What we know:
Elements (H helix, E strand, L loop, with lengths): L10 H9 L3 H12 L3 H14 L7 E7 L5 H14 L4 E6 L1 H6 L11 H4 L4 E3 L8 H17 L4 E7 L4 H6 L4 E6 L12 H6 L2 E4 L7 H15 L13 E3 L8 H17 L2 H28 L1 H15 L5 H11 L8
Parallel strand pairs: 1-4, 1-5, 2-3, 2-4, 5-6, 6-7
Amino acid sequence: xxxxxxxxxxxxxxxxxxxxxxxxxxxxxxxxxxxxxxxxxxxxxxxxxxxxxxxxxxxxxxxxxxxxxxxxxxxxxxxxxxxxxxxxxxxxxxxxxxxxxxxxxxxxxxxxxxxxxxxxxxxxxxxxxxxxxxxxxxxxxxxxxxxxxxxxxxxxxxxxxxxxxxxxxxxxxxxxxxxxxxxxxxxxxxxxxxxxxxxxxxxxxxxxxxxxxxxxxxxxxxxxxxxxxxxxxxxxxxxxxxxxxxxxxxxxxxxxxxxxxxxxxxxxxxxxxxxxxxxxxxxxxxxxxxxxxxxxxxxxxxxxxxxxxxxxxxxxxxxxxxxxxxxxxxxxxxxx
Length: 336
Ligand code: GDP
């Protein structure tokens, strides 16, 4: 009798350890979901399916901001407050720079020294291998694992550059944008797309001689976001100031983050949003897998190479080439 793939991983034992809240088991389970080995991914899928019924109760919070905005200082300050109140906090990271460079900025353990050693917290650096798509997949699965382990606040941190904010916004309930004051030009350099994703905005480093600047920046931002299409019909995005270093304004930011979740839950938007996220996720998995299979197929590769040659020689348009490739697979009938 042939062994089923993934038999080397005892999924039941993994699941029991996670549900018991055993930190080492949580770490091992996340390592499993981060693995790119086909048998590990299969085992990871099975593990996640088993744990899924135990999830859904945590508040999932995304946090973004440019490097140096104070994300880890903020998460450390917020996380230690929450654990002191009896909450259990997990911090995950999606760091596209780690994907490119193989070294994680967000993963630097010393950045959250107190939270990392807090027994009521679990801090996990971003995986530093694979594509952004791969990191997104494993982070989604890691959310399931930490929720099943009983963490009731899940923070997903990401750098405010590139595509990773969109990926994170699609896996959380509330998205917090940390901003910096730059006198006079606080609105420059912020991508409109990132502002549109935010549910709560906080201008950090409102301390010392920067308090007035931060307040001015917050006011400017508050008027700027009125011009954007609202993400929710029922929630007005607040713009606050805080100092993660001094612990000022953190409680207020947290109150608004909780307020956002309570608001969308009461209006039925939370459930609808999570369903939408799951559906989007399903399609993005289908997209990735189909594309991978296609690209790996020798017949497609050969045909594509020929078409690429014709594109280069300008004997073919991209849309004709795409149609021809799909028609060859029997996937395109000339419609659409
Ligand atoms: P991240 O890259 O967004 O995670 O930013 P860090 O949390 O690593 O912070 C970058 C730098 O800004 C560090 O030197 C922090 O000590 C400092 N910093 C973070 N928050 C504050 C704050 O509220 N006020 C001031 N003055 N400095 C801060």
